[in-house]
Amino acid sequence: MTSDPAAPAVVKKSQRGIILDSLLQGFLILLPLTIILILISIVFNFIFGIVAPLSAALDPGSEEPHWFINVLSLAIFCVFIFLIGLLVRNKVGKVYFKSFEKKYLTKIPLYNLIHQTVYQFVGLKKLPFSEVVLLDPFRSGTMMTGFITDQINDTLYTIFVPTAPNPTNGNIYHVPKELITFLDVSTQDAMRTVMGMGTGTCDMLSGMDLSEILTAGGAKEIMKSKEIDESLDTVGTNPA
Fold it and tell me: How far is CA 29 from CA 20, 39, 151, 160, 209, in A?
């Protein structure tokens, strides 16, 4: 019996892939939360620095700030957040904030990722997708990860295909059902693969018969292309 010398290398490579994928997934999840905590800390320390001089009046001679300063700083911070939320809830304030966000905030690196993470984390914004699909919009056999956003009729669907790693951008396709492969995957898991630039796709498609993943529309178009290539080859081999 002969052994396969390449097997250990394949196992090591697979293990390295799992480790790198796990590190990347963890980094993408923790990065927005870390930035949020840093920003909160900066704002709180700024408020604390403003009210800190009151500590000398409350507790003269003490090196440590009076406990009331911490409570006051936290109260001012909460009131500040409350006023911003109250302003944004107002129709006029919401319009001005959207304009300010589009003009300035969206140009800040990772802002869209942080915005989406926070809104989904607190449950204020749910993914507007009903199902995860693999899409072959150009009948080429190349599959794209997409999400159903609407169903026009029994045979026509509207699919959103996000870009990686920023899923807030992407393309919208209105395609017949024959170009779609429906997946039994949650939208959250599929979105994580998009934000991870494809990492985790193997787990997402595990258990599927990948030999049958090519849609009927894509298969027809590939056969048509082969027939055209064969006819061109025939013309090339039969000079006039």
Answer: 14, 17, 32, 23, 30
State the Rg of the chain over Cα: 27
Report pLDDT for 2. Answer: 47
Those residues with Cβ within 8 angstroms of residue 156's Cβ, 6 or more apart along the chain or in another chain: 174, 175, 176, 177
Please say if the pLDDT value at position 10 is more than 50.
no
Give 161 or 90, the one with higher predicted confidence: 161
Question: How far apart, in whole angstroms, are the C-alpha atoms of residue 198 and residue 164?
Answer: 8
pLDDT tens-digit series, residues 166-200: 777 889 999 988 888 888 888 878 888 888 888 88
| Cross-strand partners of 159 | 148, 173
Neighbours of 186 (CB within 10 A): 14
Cα→Cα distances 98→87, 104, 114, 120, 166, Å: 12, 10, 16, 19, 19
Residue 41 above 70 pLDDT?
Answer: yes
Strand, helix or coil at 69? helix
At residue 134, the 3 state secondary structure works out as strand
CA distance 115 to 108: 11
> Both tokens of residue 54?
């009151």
Contacts of 80 (CB under 8 A, 6+ apart): 43, 47
